[in-house]
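To the structural biology subgroup,

Please find below the input and predicted structure for DNA ligase (ATP), which we are adding to the shared reference set this quarter. The sequence is reproduced verbatim from the submission form. If anyone notices a discrepancy with their own records, reply to this email rather than editing the shared folder directly, so we keep one authoritative version.
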Amino acid sequence: MDLPVMPPVKPMLAKSVAKIPEGMHYEAKWDGFRAIVFRDGEEVELASRTTKPLTRYFPELVSALRERLPGRCVVDGEIVIARGGRLDFDALTERIHPADSRVRTLAERTPASFVAFDLLALDDESLTGRPLTERRALLERMLRDAGPPVHLAPATGDVEVARRWFEQFEGAGLDGVVAKPPTLRYLPDERAMFKIKHERTADVVVAGYRLHKSGPVVGSLLLGLHDDQGVLQHVGVCAAFTMKRRAELVEELEPLRLDDVSGHPWAAWGDAAAHESARLPGAPSRWSGKKDLSWVPLRPDLVVEVAYDHMESGARFRHTARFRRWRPDRTPESCTFSQLEEPVRYDLAEVLGVRG
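Predicted structure (tokenized):
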């Protein structure tokens, strides 16, 4: 492979802001695997946000990109999978599997798509030094005849349209809106763009914690919600405390600490089969690898209010939740899934402009 922009390349990133800024180039924020595509003739490579190779996990995309992209180019975008008219991140994570036969089966059962939103190189020219407006115009011309599963990310310069997208597109599983300065050069691994994500709050049960990698202080709180049968399901974690606060939490939570996990709602966490019928902490995954997933059980009496962006498959927080405040006025039994706000569904085909 011989391209004007060669791997490894870390993609340009965005920093979170509270409101959609005016005077920007706006795109939807996709909930998938960020990927940079390198194509040189028959060679096609997909690289993750951390520059790790994704090529072998998406053979159907490699074929489609070879057919739909110019002979020599480097394109930034997102790998996504849609089911039932909305993005499905769970289906995407299933594709990271060591068995080639499993990957190919899933490629047929849940084929992936690629949504392109930036162009780093075309033919013999690097475009990273050009402003976004020029890169976008070239990308639009390059993909004007492309079809599914390769898509051009919708974009607008109208802030009112962006605000409407922010409200509507969440129903199709998207994360929010990204705002980019029109004159922005492509700056790898720099947070030069802006992302605006939904934030909601929920009252959840603290049922345990994991130790921090640096020592005997709290790394993250394990959070739970009760389902319709009154069973406490693990829904995610709350982290991002200062080191001083992590040490304080160990002392504050000590009265709730259980020496024996047998009486805990998540006592079966170490049994792989138990994870098939319940949401428990410590489920083995291809992402965690050899990571220590052990945790300290707590009597599930404490309630905390956390902020979150959205739920993954309606069952767990998609990202790490943010601590807001303790809720001594709430009982653990009152912390149920019913409090969670569900966005109005919106067909992903409408986002991408796909019909039929």
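Summary notes: DSSP finds seven helices and 20 strands in the chain. Residues 13-197 form a domain with the D-amino Acid Aminotransferase; Chain A, domain 1 fold (CATH 3.30.470.30).

Regards,
Lab coordination
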